[in-house]
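F.,

This is the one I mentioned.
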């Protein structure tokens, strides 16, 4: 194996590790968003309407906003992962030539 091919193989392995890490982080973030969604639903369902006012209502709204931001971040990571996977496929195609 030449030095160039060793370097290409090392970079390909590094890219594959990055792809796997992005997948894992996205899954963790999506899991956190799901858990937060359950918490928000329980709080809204279990807290009487007369309690869901003032600071409690603001906290619920902020919690829902955080949930949406986390879900959006997971979507962004999915997009990054897709781009990384396309780069990996392109890299393998170049290596095969």
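My design for it:
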């Amino acid at each position: 194996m030449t030095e160039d091919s060793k370097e290409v193989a090392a970079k390909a392995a590094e890219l594959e590790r990055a792809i796997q890490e992005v997948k894992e982080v996205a899954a963790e973030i999506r899991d956190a968003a799901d858990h937060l969604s359950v918490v928000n639903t329980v709080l809204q369902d279990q807290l009487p309407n007369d309690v869901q006012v003032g600071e409690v209502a603001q906290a619920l709204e902020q919690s829902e906003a955080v949930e949406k931001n986390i879900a959006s971040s997971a979507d962004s990571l999915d997009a990054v992962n897709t781009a990384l996977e396309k780069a990996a496929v392109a890299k393998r195609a170049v290596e095969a030539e």
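The radius of gyration is 21 Å.

Talk soon.
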